[in-house]
Write a structure and sequence with these properties.
The chain has helices at 16-31, 47-54, 86-95, 118-134, 143-151, 205-218, 238-247, 263-272, 288-294, 307-310, 323-334, 337-352, 356-372, 377-421, 436-446, 449-477; strands at 2-6, 35-40, 59-63, 74-79, 96-102, 137-140, 160-162, 192-196, 224-228, 255-259, 275-278, 299-301. By secondary structure, the protein is α/β, with parallel strands linked by helices. The strands form two sheets. Strands 3-2-1-4-5-6-7 form a seven-stranded parallel sheet, with helices on both faces. The radius of gyration is 36 Å and the shape is elongated.
Length: 484
């Protein structure tokens, strides 16, 4: 069975989504059951990832630039993340007999602040709805996300499947000290808390700063806070963070912002951190506490959203969103090595149960389900809508070319007319000096050649005589020399 995987998100950066997509493809290829066609963007994918994909068994790598009407369709097209634009759905319907979409969460769907304007948000929501409507199966990471989708009435219950991600990622190279760190930053003392993640507001980095402030001021903890993650242009908490640091100037020297870090740098930070602080208010799954435990580090998080479901209840430390109670509990945890180890061991056991092999086996069953599922009217309408839009776009393109050609022809004709009219264009037309009634009179006269020719010859003679008199007058005024 041929399955096409949309891997255009593999752009050389390493975030949770990129790791998920790459590990998923490797696990599916390792089953030996499928023949995979992986769609990538040749202009952004790095050489190492392309080489890795090309070396997988029964896997073909196809660049978007090479897709055309002759590209074969697969039995199933799987987009392992939500649709961001109509083009994402168009590609899925064009290259798959049946479509499977992974809806990782509804964070962006529910939050207009993560977009440059309202129109962009509405476009995203339309694309998400269209993708989930067209899909025979919609995959989510957790019951929490499933409940969100059902509450929004986006998908019928029978089309949703829960497949948790794996956590047994392939090992990376040796940890690497972040290049952005100053030489004297993060030495052996003092300890530091690590907050990983893009500065989206739902990541709640502001609460991490408040925790640091409370721990230092009221619990005698002398450590620092490292914020590691890329900056987002829309929906960032950066201004709120700056406002707090301005209000608490003594806190600023104890906060280190690193921006985006590589996986090797992330591994170094986790290995050297006193604890990871993960105050996110919403996650489709929430891998960080499990990754921290597998790295032997305690994680400070709240039992919020999916984390209340997937993480053992006794492992959460943050009281949402009470900084006083949270700092009290965290201070006790940091000061109790046995309690820290218990949390690490409990989360690590849960993490080891989540494997990519299990995820791939579940997906193969879902692919088979999608092929055997009855054809739905909604999915057919989605395909019809895509075909109709494609035809409309084609007609629009032809129409634009015709209009542009006609515009160019009219422009050329106008320029030729102006050239033919010559100096007469200053007399006639909306800006001409000749009155309208005189223009109409001359036009009527020109229709009678017997009268027009003598009159026009007379007018031409008068004009020539006038020019001669003008030249003679100028010659006298300039001492007998005519002007050049």
């Amino acid at each position: 069975m041929w399955v096409t995987i949309d891997a255009r998100a593999l752009d050389g950066s390493v975030t949770g989504t990129q790791v998920h997509i790459l590990e998923l493809i490797r696990a599916l290829a390792a089953t030996g059951v499928l023949r995979l066609r992986v769609i990538v963007r040749a202009d952004v994918i790095d050489d190492a990832t392309r080489e890795l994909l090309g070396g997988l068994a029964q896997t073909e790598v196809l660049a978007t630039e090479d897709i055309d009407s002759q590209t074969p369709r697969s039995a199933v097209f799987h987009r392992p993340q939500q649709a961001f634009s109509p083009g994402d759905v168009d590609l899925a319907l064009a290259l798959g007999e049946r479509v499977v979409i992974s809806q990782l969460d509804l964070i962006a769907y529910s939050n207009p602040g993560y977009f440059p304007d309202l129109d962009a948000w509405q476009d995203y929501r339309r694309a998400s709805r269209h993708g989930m409507t067209a899909a025979e199966r919609v995959i989510v990471f957790s019951e929490h996300t499933r409940a969100d989708i059902l509450a929004e009435a986006l998908v019928e219950p029978e089309r949703i499947r829960i497949v948790p991600p794996g956590l047994d990622h392939h090992s990376i190279a040796e940890p690497l000290r972040p290049a952005a760190l100053a030489p004297d930053d993060l030495t052996e003392e003092p300890p530091f808390l690590l907050c990983l993640g893009t500065d989206f507001r739902h990541k709640n980095r502001l609460f991490a700063l408040q925790l640091l402030d409370r721990l230092r001021e009221h619990h005698g903890w002398g450590g620092k806070l490292v914020l590691a993650g890329s900056h987002t242009p829309h929906g960032s908490s950066l201004e709120l963070e700056d406002a707090l640091l301005t209000e608490r100037p003594g806190l600023r020297p104890n906060v280190i912002r690193l921006g985006a870090v590589s996986e090797r740098e992330k591994a170094w930070l986790i290995a050297h951190a006193e604890a990871l602080v993960y105050p996110s208010v919403y996650e489709g799954f929430g891998l960080v506490p499990f990754e921290a435990a597998l790295g032997g580090v305690v994680c400070l998080f709240a039992p919020q959203a999916s984390l209340a479901e997937v993480a053992p209840q006794e492992t959460s430390t943050i009281v949402p969103w009470d900084v006083v109670q949270s700092a009290e509990r965290i201070s006790e945890l940091l000061g109790d090595p046995d309690a820290r180890q218990r949390q690490i061991d409990t989360l690590a056991r849960a993490a080891r149960a989540l494997t990519w092999t299990a995820a791939a086996e579940s997906l193969i069953e879902i692919y088979a389900e999608s092929i055997l599922a009855p054809v739905r009217a909604a999915a057919t309408l989605s395909r019809d809508a895509i075909d109709r839009e494609r035809r409309i776009d084609a007609v629009h393109e032809v129409t634009v070319r015709r209009v542009e050609g006609e515009r160019d022809r009219v422009q050329r004709s106008f320029e030729e007319l102006i050239e033919d009219v010559g100096p007469g264009r200053s007399l006639v037309g909306p800006t001409g000096t000749m009155p309208d009634d005189l223009q109409r009179g001359l036009l009527a006269l020109s229709a009678r050649p017997a009268l027009a020719r003598p009159l026009f010859r007379l007018l031409g003679g008068v004009f020539a005589l006038g020019r001669a008199l003008d030249r003679a007058t100028l010659r006298r005024l300039r001492g007998g020399h005519a002007p050049d």
